[in-house]
Structure formats: structure tokens, C-alpha cells
From TrEMBL:
Key word Hydrolase present: yes
Official protein name in the record: Acylphosphatase
Keywords, sorted A to Z: Hydrolase
Keyword Hydrolase: yes
Annotated Acylphosphatase-like domain residues: 3-91
Coiled coil, from the record: none
E.C. no: 3.6.1.7
Superkingdom assignment: Bacteria
Amino acid sequence: MINYQLTVSGQVQGVGFRWGCYRLAQQYGVSGFVKNLPSGQVYLEVQGLPDAVTNFIARVESGPTPYARINQVSKHPLPCQDYGGRFTIRR
């Protein structure tokens, strides 16, 4: 298992970005969460099997919805955590 935190900037709030990430997480079988930041960025933590996490991140970087415009994605590894086996949308 691997775990990453991502901070995504661009046009990522108000365009279904978090919901798109949730759907991708279901598709790839990863756990973690996604939430909007007051700065206008979106923050994610994603954990799972290496191939699943890598593919999930690649899809996030290309924009999980057609309305999102990604300017930058910052990625950093994290220690594995207990997300209860789920991926959630936080407020």
C-alpha cells in the first residue's frame, strides 16, 4: 500500500471536481478523502495498491471532470493511514 497527499490548483472548485475524484476512487478501489481549501485549491489524500494510486493520480492530473482546469498538482508521500476502507468527500 502507498499513500499520497495532493494539492490541486486551477479551476477546481464549483466544477464537480470532488465528485469526480470520488467516482475515480470507486473505480480504482482506493481510499482517502478530498476537500476544498479556502485558498481555492483542492486537497486529497489517496491510499491503495501502487498501480491503483498511480492511475488515480494520473486521472486527477488530467482533470476528473471536463469542466476542471488543472494548473498544478503538488504530490507528497504520506505514511499509510486508516481511512476505514472508504474514500469520502469532506467539507
